Amino acid sequence: xxxxxxxxxxxxxxxxxxxxxxxxxxxxxxxxxxxxxxxxxxxxxxxxxxxxxxxxxxxxxxxxxxxxxxxxxxxxxxxxxxxxxxxxxxxxxxxxxxxxxxxxxxxxxxxxxxxxxxxxxxxxxxxxxxxxxxxxxxxxxxxxxxxxxxxxxxxxxxxxxxxxxxxxxxxxxxxxxxxxxxxxxxxxxxxxxxxxxxxxxxxxxxxxxxxxxxxxxxxxxxxxxxxxxxxxxxxxxxxxxxxxxxxxxxxxxxxxxxxxxxxxxxxxxxxxxxxxxxxxxxxxxxxxxxxxxxxxxxxxxxxxxxxxxxxxxxxxxxxxxxxxxxxxxxxxxxxxxxxxxxxxxxxxxxxxxxxxxxxxxxxxxxxxxxxxxxxxxxxxxxxxxx
Length: 386
Known about the structure:
Largest sheet: none
Structural class: mainly alpha
Strand content: under 5%
Oligomer: single chain
Number of helices: 18
Radius of gyration: 21 Å
């Protein structure tokens, strides 16, 4: 069996490249999920200012948003592959399940180097796509809306309102993060590998569950599939994205303000914790729509298409870039490598992230001149259609 050779959709590659660029910059200032930094008490006031501005600015811009765009495009890619196989009279659903199994293996390779990776989560939550892909558009939109509203958190809010002694269910993962941090700051490569793959991965999945990423990821996968179904990625539908941009801007500001206000008016942690989770996930979703719709609108309706296309090769090799940045980042910042967590503050780490991005982008442009797929993309593709 061979895969379709249909032309790629460039705007999706641009979005994917933008998302992975944001991810590498965030991971760099986080020291790749190892929140250990040098003493900054003696550094200049200007450097303290840039540290804070970069940290707050990047998290406002990309925190939870780069991943969300990446998730929508995951569902969109499923639609493209599924629809092309349906055109040939073939059912792609079981083949996609095999593809997810391969992604699980790839994600665990990435987890060796980086405890905050998302591919394993994608490989698990991704099974929702073949399960619901034959539902109507209306049913899918209702399902995605319910998932975006965090049904578990909503249930917890209701439970706390009914019973004052109700406690928000939490997964105890502090000891897992502590063990991973100890290895990142003092372990050998093999010790770090072992802990990252087990304790680190369990901690990452527990974090995803507690912070609503499981329900949100499923919702974003479904929305990505709907975008493909409705043909919203096509240039003639640019007006839709203008409306999405306006609606997302209107929704973002009150949601963002409400998220900031909640702790001042709600003392009961059993209510505050799940309610804050719901509101914060919604305002991040709204801002993600601002970014995504803004890029799509600019791509089709302004003179920026040529400039935005610079990111397309980076997006086409998103899997390769995502995993290699984990390898590079852990080597730079963890103890088993150069241990730069001891020497680089936020501003310097941000510059390192920019350098990694530029190097990867340069490599992508060179590679794509003579290849149709990135190295890991080609491997995953061949495995899918074996």
